[in-house]
Design goal:
386 residues, alpha+beta, N Utilization Substance Protein A, Chain:P, domain 4, OB fold (Dihydrolipoamide Acetyltransferase, E2P), GMP Synthetase, Chain A, domain 3, 3 domains, five-stranded antiparallel beta sheet, 13 helices, 16 strands, elongated
Length: 386
């Protein structure tokens, strides 16, 4: 133990961010364990570190008593007074018991314990440093990949991106610079672990915060996001500024702002829609680019569901490829959405009219009202009426 040890402490503190006192405490604990194990000693001992010389020594601690019962832990008062007349009962006296060959044996025994403590300290340091980046966007460099993860270097820490967080249309090559969302900062038995994602919906939110100043400063608020990563995203926005168009602000002049984000996500389509307090208008906006004729809500308060009526020629557009448009709209609004073409609704109304003509004298008046498209009697609300 010497000057080289002090230099090693300084290097670890600089490169790993581990304080020297943490390392010293780890070595002290290891040396105490090594001393008791290798020298079969049960007495109370302490390890003292000389910061100037970079050396350690072992002290046995004994308590001053009137009559000694265990000479490993106790020291007679009369003997203590012979050393220093100021000693009293209950005082502790330290005697150096460092063996001559202790350094070699202790180094072998303590190595594993010291490395474990250093790994723990390093893990805590990384967690403390990167916990502030939780749910934030960071830029990293791809290092390598295997069947489970893509390994990304972020500053001096290696993060992992699982398969489920990788965009299906992207290939990650070493030295590629990519922007990722930090989704988890924690630890496992192997050390600190930072998990990042390219598929999380919040990644889109953070990209808009970087691209659109009005989103960053809160003038435009992102209310909700529904995403099928690598393919399509729907995002609902609103603003309290009556002179500002939240959708146009996010899209940018000639679509420049949203196009930058589309490019960042490898061509993923992004629909920006206006959030409305009225769920009828919000659902209609969410189904963009399809046209909505009317929206009817379920009476079941526990299950938010809506029947949406669209023109026949808009049915495929409203549903989307493999149901994607209506699926994303449902996740965006929080409603279970069922879509029906206009002709099917008209067909049901004509059957009801025929039944009423047979059974009721006033059916002709009711039928006339329904055939005009009125929504008062059937509980259907049209976005146009709003």
């Amino acid at each position: 133990m010497s000057k080289e040890l002090l230099e090693a402490f300084a290097s670890l503190e600089k490169e790993k961010g581990i304080q020297a006192d943490v390392i010293v405490d780890a070595i002290k604990a290891a040396l105490i364990a090594a001393y008791k194990k290798n020298y079969d000693q049960a007495q109370n001992v302490e390890v003292v570190f000389d910061e100037k010389k970079g050396s350690f020594r072992v002290n046995a601690i004994k308590t001053v008593v009137e009559e000694v019962q265990d000479d490993r832990l106790e020291f007679a008062l009369k003997d203590a007074l012979a050393i220093n007349k100021a000693y009293e009962l209950g005082d502790e006296i330290r005697f150096e018991v460092t063996p001559k060959d202790f350094g070699r044996i202790a180094a072998q025994t303590a190595k594993q314990v010291i490395m474990q403590r250093i790994r723990e300290a390093e893990r805590h340091h990384i967690i403390d440093q990167y916990s502030q980046y939780q749910d934030e966007l960071v830029t990293g460099v791809v290092q390598r990949s295997d069947n489970r993860f893509v390994y990304i270097q972020i500053d001096n820490v290696e993060a992992v991106m699982p398969k489920s967080d990788q965009l299906p249309n992207e290939t990650y090559n070493p030295q590629d610079h990519i922007r990722v969302l930090v989704t988890h900062v924690g630890s496992d038995p192997k050390g600190a672990q930072i998990t990042v994602s390219r598929t999380a919906p919040d990644l889109v939110k953070r990209l808009f915060e970087q691209e659109v100043p009005e989103v960053y400063d809160g003038t435009v608020e992102i209310v909700s996001i529904a995403r099928e990563a690598g393919d399509r995203t729907k995002m609902a926005v609103k603003t309290s500024n009556p002179n500002l168009d939240p959708v146009g602000t996010c899209v940018g002049p000639k679509g420049a702002r949203v196009q930058n984000i589309v490019n960042e996500l490898g061509g993923e389509n992004i629909d920006v829609v206006k959030y409305e307090e009225d769920p009828t208008d919000f659902i209609a906006n969410a189904l963009n680019p399809a046209e909505v004729i009317a929206v009817q809500f379920s009476d079941d308060e526990d299950h938010k569901s809506a029947l949406v009526i669209v023109p026949d020629y808009q049915l495929s557009l409203a549903i989307g490829k493999k149901g994607q448009n209506v699926r994303l709209a449902a996740r965006l609004t929080g409603y279970k959405i069922d879509i029906k073409p206009e002709s099917q609704i008209e067909f049901v109304d004509s059957d009801e009219t025929a039944d009423q003509d047979e059974g009721e004298s006033q059916a002709s008046e009711t039928s006339s009202t329904e055939s005009t498209g009125s929504t008062a009697s059937d509980g259907v609300t049209t976005p146009m009426e709003k």
